[in-house]
Automatic annotation (TrEMBL):
Gene label: manba
Domain (Beta-mannosidase-like galactose-binding) ranges: 37-212
Catalysed reaction, written as an equation: Hydrolysis of terminal, non-reducing beta-D-mannose residues in beta-D-mannosides
Pathway info: Glycan metabolism; N-glycan degradation
One GO CC term, this protein: lysosome
Top-rank EC class of the record's enzyme: hydrolase
Gene3D superfamilies, A to Z: Galactose-binding domain-like, Glycosidases, Immunoglobulins
Name this polypeptide is given: beta-mannosidase
A single MF term (Gene Ontology): beta-mannosidase activity
Family per similarity comment: Belongs to the glycosyl hydrolase 2 family.
A Pfam family assignment: Glyco_hydro_2_N2
Lineage of origin: Eukaryota, Metazoa, Chordata, Craniata, Vertebrata
Signal peptide: 1-21
EC number: 3.2.1.25
The organism's place on the tree of life at top rank: Eukaryota
Length: 821
């Protein structure tokens, strides 16, 4: 029986899909099945309580069956966990109200990964994609009194291997990760976080579990499953409209009326509609009153992030049957690929609300091997750290997970633009019907879940798979190449791209990263050289060349990945290691390094400019070595990022107009060496402090060309500035400058990078006491008439290891821990 409540009646609020608060006046009943379940392994030798949402590893640790999986070599010691099959079981009692509902769904927001679900001993359904939400209609299987719900999970390693074995017609490389990663094979055969089988910065913990919520949803007539909305701007009419999509699950055909309104914009529209049985999607468009002034959402550093409340009310006859509210943010995004004056190729930059914006930021990887351990505080700290370092963009990289709703909500609020990859990375993928089918479901679900977020400015099909094919990472015989290219196009273009564009017309889609974009498309989606500097985005890594030499960096249109490794600090490593691990040559030190020759590369790069630690005390030598890798990394990424930022306004030999610098990588998944600027646990590496400067809105950059010192003023501000460069020449021996030089006041147009100072180094030093390249260094800043604009920067005239006059400072630091009552 349907209980109708009049508009003036009571309302019950509950959380609905992150941004939405729903009150269903039609009495949808929800039974939360999260909490303590029972977990057992395949032979029954282990039986323990397990928290849901959660995973097997977390449960085993919480119950004391294993110690910290991140401790020392435990990733290898605990390999057995993911080689076993596990079963989650819970019991629940049915309430009388629930059993009379017309439809009852058993909903899993996420099963990791290969599961079979049974209720009271009867099979309900199967799962094989961690990125899908599943619901099963279970009304007929429920009984009065106690019900038993069980989810059996297959070992993801064995499943992936079985899938690989069954795929006999041709290989789908790579078979296994490089040995140095100590990982598992064939992860491309399972729709699961690809880095969970190991990566070059992460351990192999192929998780299994119910990693998101589980519940029963019971209702009569219909229920609103999901609401999404995207704002679209019509240039011709200078009018905004909001496309609202409702996913409705109806028991039977129902007629109704729908009212959409954004009261603050004085806009409301009512639609007559009907709902067909089953799950259906309906679209409605609300036109925004042109007399209302719409406030726009802007990226961090370019304006505010205002939103409006959209109310959606469904009526049957004159009765309100559902009502929900969501946030709508207004902004437009365009990816501009058009001819560039003085250069072959095409531009590649983002225009937000009509304004070209330089993307400053980094790449985001999974925050933890065990997603159930990612708390709201951890997410908030990381995203706030990005903003604190003056970033405006993050790329959610395609080897991890589609992040949880809260991640995108915070990005919306902080003005962080998100480059959202689909979860395919560094591999070829199967294209059998079953595989494509589950990917299609995944894509539709994720786009529907996420498209309301203004922070997401682009969808991107995969990480590096175009490059892998084009530059033949996997030694595919020439005769078979067409087949792999066909599969590539089938997966990312014919399926993913097509689906995404059907679901969302409000943001661009790029097939891969790196890619030549429009040019790749011209070349049949796999360009001959996806790293072409005249097109699209580029990933660039070089560990051997001297990173202080900006000439080694590619002057790309958009740098979406580049970076250098460093070690986390001792305070981060200490809790997961013991004394015998604390040397650079220890087994532990090489075990945690998952990138071939990584430890040696860091030392070689550091040795180019710094004395390597040589303390006699082994612990001091170790901690000094960790530290010097961070200094090296900070200085390397600074040099490269400065090069990209100063290349925004110029074309040199056909290259330039760089409009993005996203270094690899923001965060860490465990305590190990990596490219991150923030350590596992949230501590900033030296690089992150450097980033705070080198991403500042107004910033001076120095470099040398033919022994001439050049300083650029970089400004992301819209307004023009008048600035001078002030250069302080310091001797390595003194704290006061030996001399100070000023440029004349120059116009620095809004959003540009221009040279404001030029002088041969020899003449600069000749005019400054007894300074030589070895005895002096420079700091410099920008000033307007009244004050300094932006941070102070530094420029070394020689490597610090060759500096003359440097003395030990004898600085002592004391740390006080204060407690607040
Ligand atoms: C890029 C990324 C990751 C990797 C990183 C460092 O290729 O896409 O796959 O972790 O380089 O090697």
């Amino acid at each position: 029986m349907l209980l109708h409540v009049r508009l003036s009646g009571w309302a019950c609020w509950c959380l609905f899909s992150g941004v939405f608060s729903v009150f269903s006046l039609q009495q949808r009943l929800t039974v939360n099945l999260n909490g303590k379940w029972r977990l057992s392994n395949s032979n029954g030798s282990l039986l323990l309580p397990a928290q849901v949402p959660g995973c097997v590893h977390s449960a085993l640790q919480q119950q004391g069956y294993i110690t910290d999986p991140y401790f020392r070599f435990n990733d290898v010691s605990y390999r057995w966990i993911a080689l076993d099959n596990w079963t989650y079981t819970t019991t629940f009692t049915l309430s009388a109200e629930l059993s009379v509902k017309q439809k009852v769904l058993l909903v899993f927001d996420g099963v990791d990964t290969v599961g079979s679900v049974s209720l009271n001993g009867i099979a309900v359904g199967k799962t094989n994609n961690m990125f899908c939400r599943h619901d099963f209609s279970v009304k007929d299987l429920l009984k009065d009194g106690e019900n038993v719900l069980q989810v059996g999970l297959l070992s993801p390693i064995l499943y992936a291997s079985e899938q690989r074995k069954a795929h006999t017609s041709y290989a789908v490389p790579p078979e296994c990760p490089p040995g140095v990663q100590k990982g598992e094979c064939h992860v491309n055969f399972i729709r699961k976080e690809q880095s969970s089988f190991s990566w070059d910065w992460g351990p192999s913990f192929p998780t299994m579990g119910l990693w998101k919520g589980v519940r029963l949803e019971a209702f009569d007539i219909l229920q609103l499953v999901q609401v999404s909305s995207v704002p679209l701007y019509n240039d011709a009419f200078s009018q905004w409209r909001v496309q609202v999509e409702l996913l409705i699950d109806a028991v039977q055909t129902a007629r109704g009326q729908l009212t959409l309104s954004i009261p603050e914009l004085d806009s409301e529209q009512t639609f007559q509609t009907h709902f067909n049985p089953g799950k259906t999607k309906s679209n409605f468009t609300i036109l925004i009153n042109t007399a209302s002034q719409v406030k726009l959402w802007w990226p961090n550093g370019h304006g505010e992030q205002p939103y409006y409340r959209l109310t959606i009310r469904g009526f049957q006859d004159e009765f309100l049957i559902f009502s929900t509210e969501s946030k709508v943010y207004f902004r437009t995004v365009e990816l501009i690929q058009e001819p560039v004056v003085g250069s072959p190729g095409l531009s590649f930059y983002f225009r937000i609300n009509g304004k070209p914006i330089f993307l400053k930021g980094s790449n985001w990887i999974p925050v933890h091997s065990f997603q159930d351990q990612v708390t709201p505080d951890v997410l908030k700290n990381l995203l706030q750290s990005a903003v604190d370092a003056n970033m405006n963009a993050l790329r959610v990289w395609g080897g991890g997970v589609y992040e949880q709703d809260l991640f995108y909500e915070i990005c919306d609020e902080l003005g962080i633009m998100v480059w959202q990859d689909f979860m395919f990375a560094c591999a070829m993928y199967p294209t059998e019907t079953d595989f494509i089918q589950t990917v299609r479901e995944e894509v539709v679900q994720q786009v529907q879940r996420l498209k309301s977020h203004p922070s997401i400015i682009i969808w991107s099909g995969n990480n590096e798979n175009e490059a892998a094919l084009a530059t033949d990472w996997f030694d595919i015989p020439a005769s078979q190449r067409p087949k792999y290219i066909r599969d590539y196009v089938m997966l990312y273009v014919d399926n993913i791209k097509k689906l995404v564009q059907e679901e969302d017309q409000s943001r661009p889609f790029l097939v891969s990263s790196p890619t030549n974009g429009a040019e790749s498309e011209q070349e049949g989606w796999v360009a001959e050289n996806p790293y072409d500097l005249h097109y699209g985005d580029v990933h660039f890594y070089s560990y051997i060349l001297d990173c202080w030499d900006w000439r080694t960096f590619p002057r790309t249109r958009f740098a979406s990945e580049y970076g250098f490794q460093s070690w986390p600090s001792f305070s981060t490593l200490q809790p997961v290691s013991i004394k015998e691990d604390w040397s650079y040559g220890s087994n532990f030190t090489s075990h945690r390094q998952h990138h071939e020759d990584g430890n040696q590369q860091m030392i070689l790069q550091a040795a180019l400019h710094f004395h390597l630690p040589n303390a006699t005390d082994p612990l001091k030598r170790f901690t000094d070595t960790l530290y010097i890798t961070q200094v090296m990394q900070a200085q390397c990424v600074k040099t490269q990022t400065e090069f990209y930022r100063r290349s925004r306004s110029e074309i040199i030999e056909g290259k330039g107009h760089t409009m993005g610098a996203l270094y690899w990588q923001l965060n860490d998944i465990w305590q190990a060496p990596s490219w991150s600027s923030i350590e596992f646990g949230g501590k900033w590496k030296m690089l992150h402090y450097f980033a705070q400067s080198f991403f500042a809105a107004v910033f001076p950059v120095a470099f040398e060309e033919d022994d001439t010192l050049v300083i650029y003023a970089i400004s992301d501000l819209s307004r023009d500035l008048k600035l001078r460069a002030v250069v302080n020449v310091f001797s390595w021996t003194e704290l006061d400058p030996v001399c100070t030089l000023n440029s004349s006041m120059l116009l620095v147009p809004g959003v540009s990078a221009v040279a404001v100072f030029k002088q041969p180094v020899a003449s600069l030093l000749a005019g400054c006491g007894n300074c030589t390249r070895l005895t002096c260094l420079l700091t410099f800043q920008l000033e307007d008439d009244s004050s300094q604009q932006g941070p102070t920067n530094h420029h070394f005239l020689c490597s610090p290891k060759d500096a003359q006059g440097l003395r030990r400072p004898n600085i002592t630091v004391e740390t006080f821990h204060s407690t607040y009552m």
